[in-house]
Design goal:
The structure is a homodimer of 365-residue chains. By secondary structure, chain A is α/β, with parallel strands linked by helices. Helices cover 44% and strands 17% of the residues of chain A. Chain A has helices at 11-24, 37-42, 66-69, 73-81, 99-105, 111-119, 138-151, 170-185, 202-214, 224-227, 229-238, 257-268, 286-297, 319-326, 336-339, 345-362; strands at 2-8, 46-52, 57-63, 90-96, 126-131, 155-158, 193-195, 219-222, 243-246, 272-276, 307-311, 331-333. In chain A, the strands form 3 sheets. A 4-stranded antiparallel sheet of chain A has the order 2-3-1-4. In chain A, α7 runs parallel beside α16. The longest helix of chain A is centred in the last third of the chain and has 18 residues, at 345-362. Chains A and B meet through α2, α4, α9 and α11 of A and α2, α4, α9 and α11 of B.
Chain lengths: 365, 365
């Protein structure tokens, strides 16, 4: 697997740092201490290039051995950035999984096409909103879900802050919210999905999906960096017909977000990935957002494309711009900016849905 | 739960950022959009203080509600730093769990006293080394384990880079290495522990511990930030007599290490915590290392003390300094610097063990 790291310094200093990084991220000991030639040949990471940059940093391209990266997603993260994450002067800029790794992890179960089949939406971008705030009662959530469903939103997700044992428990939320969207969905050509938020240990996650699936849920929200990527990857294998909407919580800023939210989340099985879009509450630039979207949708060793979900302080007013930027194969997520309408929430939600349809018709697929 | 964040800027700008952070890390929506008074009162995080610092940053102390933090370790991380980790200008400086949270998560099963009972070591610091490099054969690992065990090392851990399906698989390592330390341990007053590295999903982790426990293993190595803290916490509950040696891989540098490796790893159940000591391959300062050690050992709502494990490029020559700095209640970890002795590994390992004993006798407990 090829990885590009950003290091401080240029020239001999950068080369020395790159060589140290290659050891740190593989055998974690001095080369002189290795007695097995096979390890030196097949296991130690290799420095392929160190290129000085205009800002005084260097980009170092390393090849990590397939043997060290292994078949487990957590192990991949460990070899990618386990120890180096503790350093202040090293960042991961880019990750290029091999065809073998891509095939091993398998990527999205459903991908964009599968999510279109689930929702019945074609010929336009998708719309998504969030059930907030945490602390609301089940009755409040059901009411909101009904409003959003009647407005024709495509996906209604839990806020990622909902815990399993919250005031409105996972099971209560699933039963109440799924009932609402089932009720409003009858007779429509498109189908609104309710995506409850998973949390807890692997056992909790499995129990939650089993319960949700039994109640008709076909998409769940999960934060891979919180639940652990190994668990995320295991869930994707265990539930091949479930859609996974990945949340970036705890993703940090030390691994470039196109590499983590784009390449790696898709590799491990995200069907759709939420990212903080430029111009909202977060500080990602348009270039970074464009790169995330490119990694989610571009060809990648035969993996399905994942749906980009720009979010983080978006508004109905920005829908035309967002659709123009990301095209039809994106799902726009607007949460708080709908709820702020309070008693005008139904109208505001319909305005969002209408804006997505109108903007999509202006833009080629 | 009280949390101190570092923000850029001072004065009104910092106050505005702190208020935004309080919303981001709780209800994730504008206050104006909240219609439920109970949510405003009991769920929204509160800004308690914003203090300007000499370097142009501010320290903001927030109180997160128990309801939002919930009973799950992953949820706690989510509310602590989920969304904010995506920002460049916010760091977590300090975390102060309440007595209720401490009691809920429970901290170390064994703690320092329990690890002393397991190893039979009293009146001195402990010694630890690592089996390296990944890629070695089981026969190589068994031979190393025999050498380290005969030298009297207290803990022999797997390198954290070992995956379950490596050339020497988890099960092969456990059988071979545990057999060696059982053989060398007969008739001694102290007992060497072999700590194999766990990896994979929650199911994998459980299978690995069950197998290891059945083969006499009483300590395991685990990286909480890779496996997911919810899983780590669940393992600690499920295996109350197992010692958990926590590795900092993927811990990053956005949450201050005394808060993450010290307070939170201990809270979630680490009996011993490896950290990169100053003067080695990493860049932690003596102050940061001192603060980590303090968090691991200081009184904390009745939780057991956890054993600090300074590591990351230490050498036998530094043993007197390390013991003088950290005292008896620490475990010194030296890996590559022993192995570099190659055919003199037995003598070098004994020199390490002797140095720890000698340095400990110079220092008050």
């Amino acid at each position: 697997m090829r990885v590009v790291y950003r290091l401080q310094g240029v020239g001999a200093e950068a080369t020395r740092r790159a060589e140290a990084l290659a050891l740190e991220q593989s055998i974690e000991m001095p080369v002189e201490a290795v007695t097995d030639d096979r390890v030196l040949r097949d296991v130690v990471a290799r420095v392929e290039a160190v290129e000085p940059q205009a800002d005084g940093t260097s980009l170092a391209r390393l090849a990590l051995s397939a043997e060290s990266v292994g078949g487990d997603a957590g192990q991949l993260m460990n070899m990618l950035f386990g120890n180096s994450s503790l350093l202040d002067d090293v960042r991961v800029v880019d990750v290029q999984p091999t065809a073998a790794l891509s095939s091993h992890f398998g990527g999205p179960n459903l991908g964009i096409d599968g999510l279109r089949r689930l929702t019945g939406v074609s010929g336009r971008a998708l719309s998504c909103t969030a059930l907030k705030p945490i602390g609301s009662t089940v009755a409040d959530l059901a009411r909101m879900t009904r409003v959003f469903g009647e407005a024709g939103l495509d996906v209604i997700k839990d806020d990622h802050g909902w815990a399993a044992d919250a005031r409105a428990s996972f099971r209560e939320r699933v039963v109440a919210c799924q009932r609402e969207i089932d009720a409003v969905g009858r007779g429509r050509s498109t189908r609104t999905l309710y995506a409850p938020a998973l949390s807890g240990s692997r056992d909790d996650l499995r129990d939650q999906i089993l319960f949700a699936e039994a109640h008709g849920v076909s998409m769940v929200l999960v934060a891979p960096m919180i639940v652990g990527v190994s668990n995320f990857s295991a869930l994707r294998r265990e539930f091949p017909s479930m859609g996974f909407l990945a949340h970036p919580a705890l993703a940090g800023n030390q691994i470039a977000s196109p590499a983590l939210l784009g390449t790696l989340f898709r590799l491990f099985g995200a069907d759709a990935v939420i990212f903080p879009n430029h111009g909202g509450r977060f500080s990602y630039t348009p270039d970074i957002c464009g790169a995330i979207v490119e990694r989610l949708r571009a060809p990648m060793h035969g993996l399905k494309a994942a749906l980009p979900v720009p979010a983080g302080g978006m508004s109905v007013e920005r829908v035309p711009e967002l659709v123009a930027e990301y095209g039809h194969d994106a799902m726009l997520l607007i949460g708080g900016s709908l709820l702020i309408a309070r008693h005008e929430l139904p109208a505001r939600s319909r305005a969002f849905v209408d804006a997505v349809a109108a903007a999509s018709s202006e833009v080629a697929a």
